[in-house]
Request: fold
Amino acid sequence: MGIEIMKCSVESTLEEVLKCIDVNGKKAAFLVDRNDIMVGILTDGDIRRCLLDGHGLKEKAIQFAIKSFKYAHVADNPEEVFKLFDYKVSILPILDEKGRVVDYSEYNENMHISVAQPQLNGNEYKYLMDAFLSTWISSNGKYITQFEEKFAAFCGASHGVATSNGTTALHLALVALGIGVGDEVIVPDLTFAATINAVIYTGATPVIVDVEEDSWCIDPDKIEEAITDKTKAIIPVHVYGQPCDMERICDIAHRNNIIIVEDCAEAHGAEFNGKKVGTFGAIGCFSFFGNKVITTGEGGMCITNDTELDRAMRVLRDHGMSKTRRYYHEVVGFNYRMTNMQAAIGCAQLERITDILQERKKLEDLYRERLSDSAIVFQRNNLAKRKKITWLVSGLVEEKVRPKLFAKMAEGGIDTRGFFTPLSEMDIYRQYANRTCEVSHHISKCGINFPTSYEISQEVIDRIHDDLNAVVND
Ligand SMILES: Cc1ncc(COP(=O)(O)O)c(C=O)c1O
Reply:
């Protein structure tokens, strides 16, 4: 529909503006002078309020119009226009340099499609309000215990220790295991920085190794090569929802007397050999950040089958304070606690985790089907013994195509993410990589994460398909 349907003369009455809104169906009309210069905007809500205030339909509309309205400029790119929308403004006039209204832009959810979006349409609000109204809003309250027990049970572990985020979960686990100065901890090159940061916080030395070409996860051969007398732990990261080769990693750890701490931040529910990730090592660490499979806003959890470790983590999480003697501190601990409000959201999320995982898988299957003839090589989903989950729909495209694809998708308001920068490529971590990590460098340069929110429609995937073809054939 053209811009004309949005315009009313500055001379219009409230009745005429109302008729205009009735015809355009956009809940607003733009008041313009005879040179088409925009002088005000009126919404149906504004008119309703005028009538309720006792004004008549025959009164001039301009006196009630909003004159300091938001607008976009014709030269603005779609991203800039998008930023102008908020919960009140869902339609924007587009003005030329003389202030003449030449077009309009309407908020629609397809305009900005984010890579990830939490699905909060179950009991999240109800439980959150319950926690809030109970006044137990800090780190005591029924939801914490419930969330810990239920999430641990979902993973097949006997204990869960909720934390303030996934990074603190990793740090807590390492400290509880006694890892510190003089120890070496092997980490993959392709991961989020939190994995290596947690090691550095303890004073131990991280040792970066390359990843496998097929799974993108830490390469067991490279782990073996990196083991020294000082190696105390390995942190396999189940990256982008793909489980690591836990059979080989457990074997290596067992033979060399090395502890395993799994980083499962991106792989809730993934399995190796029918067993859920997080239960292979001494401790499994999860993140519940807003872009994760389930979220608590910020949040994390350590799971374990070891009662002693569970106890140690509970003490460390709570300032190192004794569980039997208040204000007596056994160790130098931290405040890494989760709040009851976060846990309330987590409990509601957990009720639907199986459905959420299924929906994400269905979405990934749709991507695979609609983009089957395109230049993308999707993440492997058929590796022996591994049952990946869909965190973000991920794949590789040619390195030279990727920036063009990012730009093309951004033009249409579709958000994408490249893969993590390899740790060994960053100045602050390079010193911890004694070997080249060619595989992770290649994957990182070609990797792309597609929008994986539950609201993604086939139409959006088809747009991505067309964008991909356009940039490949460019
Ligand atoms: C692999 C990995 N480890 C650790 C973390 C840290 O989790 P958080 O952001 O909750 O601290 C994240 C994600 O954010 C992650 O992707």
User: Anything to note?
Assistant: The chain has three domains: 3-107, 124-351, 353-472. The chain has a mean pLDDT of 94. Residues 353-370 form the longest helix (18 residues). The longest strand covers residues 38-43.
